[in-house]
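Following the same procedure, the fold was encoded as tokens, giving this record:
***
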Amino acid sequence: MSSPNPESADPQTPTSPSDPSSQNPNPVDPEPDQPDGESSNSGDGEEEQEEDDEEEECGFCLFMKAGGCKESFIAWEKCVDEAEKNGDDVAMKCTEVTAALKKCMEAHTDYYEPILRAEKAAQEEAIRELEKEKAPKDSEQNLESNEDLKKS
């Protein structure tokens, strides 16, 4: 028994190419025949309207925009793009929007926790690396100080 509604049809059964709702709007979709709920395109009207923009965006950007900090992320993204375009120092130019984005993410930890955790791990690793670089210099200075004390 088959249904005339292509959405309720077996997801493994191809639908007629003359039916526009069955045509894949993204010809390079890596998941072309996935059942509902597993496809990267949920069929949400708003998502379909923004589909052209999303095709060009990275997964990280899509993730950031899907959470509660979409506007803060867009402002940060624009600042970074503008700074890079003009040859400005991104860290200096975008300090305020970066701080606003981080504050927003911390207010929405339920969603952004994986990103915040990764950022914290990266900061800790950077500190460890700096300490490794600093340790030999401190040792050299201590050796020089000890040699100076022996000469006295």
The chain has seven helices and no strands. Residues 1-43 have pLDDT under 50 and may be disordered. Residues 109-151 form the longest helix (43 residues).
